[in-house]
Write a structure and sequence with these properties.
Beta-Lactamase, 4-stranded antiparallel beta sheet
């Protein structure tokens, strides 16, 4: 068994490339965002709060990016029944808010990006645009957030209930 493993990590240059691509996407849709890019350990590489974005979204974008990097999965995919338990078990450093996306190249997570201040769908679209700046990055095309809608998050529905 090997004592060491090969890893790749997002550089500052790569992080800035991701950040600028995400900013351009947010400007294109007319939604100011807070955008955070982290390395594979969840350490901030680049962070921006666009004029007009919600100040509190700096915190949520950072938590989304860290969650995506450390879990290797997009945020927003966990079932509502376990959200609070996982958040508590991780000392509130994990979030299920939509908009965090790992940057995975060749099956290896090298970092993550997250956006906040828009709807979940907008946040995810901006994060995908940022991740796309890295050649070969996985866009998680098949990812569908758990019970999420564009205007917010609908939680707690019972499978036997029919929505009107």
């Amino acid at each position: 068994m090997a004592d060491l493993k090969d890893t790749r990590n997002l550089t500052l240059a790569g992080g800035l490339k991701v950040l600028h691509a995400a900013i351009a996407a947010a400007e294109k849709i007319g939604q100011p965002m807070c955008i955070c890019v982290v390395d594979l350990g969840g350490n901030i590489v680049a962070l921006a709060r666009m004029d007009g974005s919600k100040a509190i979204s700096v915190i949520s974008a950072t938590n989304k990016a860290r969650t995506a990097a450390l879990s290797g999965e997009p945020t927003g995919g966990a079932h509502a029944d376990v959200e609070i338990q996982i958040a508590l078990a991780s000392e509130n450093k994990w979030t299920n808010l939509i908009g965090g996306l790992p940057i995975r190249v060749g099956g290896i997570v090298v970092g993550a990006i997250a956006a906040g201040s828009g709807t979940g769908a907008q946040d995810l679209a901006v994060a995908r645009a940022g991740a796309a700046a890295i050649a070969g990055a996985d866009m998680f095309e098949g990812f569908v957030p758990m019970e999420a809608e564009d205007t917010g998050i609908v939680r707690g529905s019972h499978p036997d209930k029919v929505r009107g």
